[in-house]
């Protein structure tokens, strides 16, 4: 599906798995306030070939075993270059479980106790990027060390900033560990300050935010960083 066109028209097709029909109706109502056409379907399960039919999948696993299967399913989808949005609602929410889902390739995770408004608002952000819903996509130009949206909006990157973004772009949906990022920065992976690395990422995140009004980098607590969603490609 054409993400840029979809965002511009404010249309979305979303499948919800594991929620009662009443909750699905509330989520749809909250989405409809800002989206011109929204279709929400409620299924007991969904298979990989069906994922391409939707813009986003909201999944609430009913048990720990189901959560593990969901993570394996998302990981397989990402390995097959499926870039749809996955929002996971976790019953026994913890940072550790959230990180496990993010590392598998989930776009975002919320506690299953999250309200319908919060779920809908999160989907709007994931699908349309509140910073610039009409054109969230950025392009990396390695030869000129540029990150750009078009010919008029460009950000000059340092060599190491380019290396980090390029590596994150090549593993869309997955995270780089802090040690892997340190290696890209040509630091000694055995002796570096995690705080210094976090400051480097924070500066890069702020540069992108200032230039494009997008939160492009997401922290995976206790592990490293990933792209917030598939918004960057190489030229």
Main features:
235 residues, 4-stranded mixed beta sheet
Number of domain units: 2
Q: What is the class of the largest domain in the CATH system?
A: Alpha Beta
**Global structural class:** alpha/beta
Can you give the helix content as a percent range?
A: 40-55%
Average per-residue pLDDT, rounded, comes to 84
CATH architecture level-2 label of the largest domain: 3-Layer(aba) Sandwich
**From N to C, what is the helix and strand string?**
HEHEHEHEHEHEEEHEHHEEE
User: DSSP helix count?
Assistant: 9
* Major pleated sheet: 5 strands, parallel
How many extended strands?
12
Strand content: 15-25%
The CATH superfamily title of the largest domain: Response regulator
- Uncertain ranges: 1-8, 130-135
Query: Per CATH, what is the topology of the largest domain?
Result: Rossmann fold
> Order of strands across the widest beta sheet?
2-1-3-4-5
Describe the global form. Answer: globular
First CA to last CA: what distance? 20 Å
CA radius of gyration is 18 Å
Which helices and strands occur, and which strands form pairs?
Blueprint: H1 3-9, E1 11-17, H2 21-32, E2 37-43, H3 48-51, E3 56-59, H4 64-79, E4 85-90, H5 95-104, E5 108-111, H6 116-128, E6 138-141, E7 146-148, E8 154-156, H7 159-170, E9 175-177, H8 178-184, H9 194-212, E10 217-220, E11 224-227, E12 232-234
Parallel strand pairs: 1-2, 1-3, 3-4, 4-5, 6-12
Antiparallel strand pairs: 6-7, 7-8, 9-11, 10-11
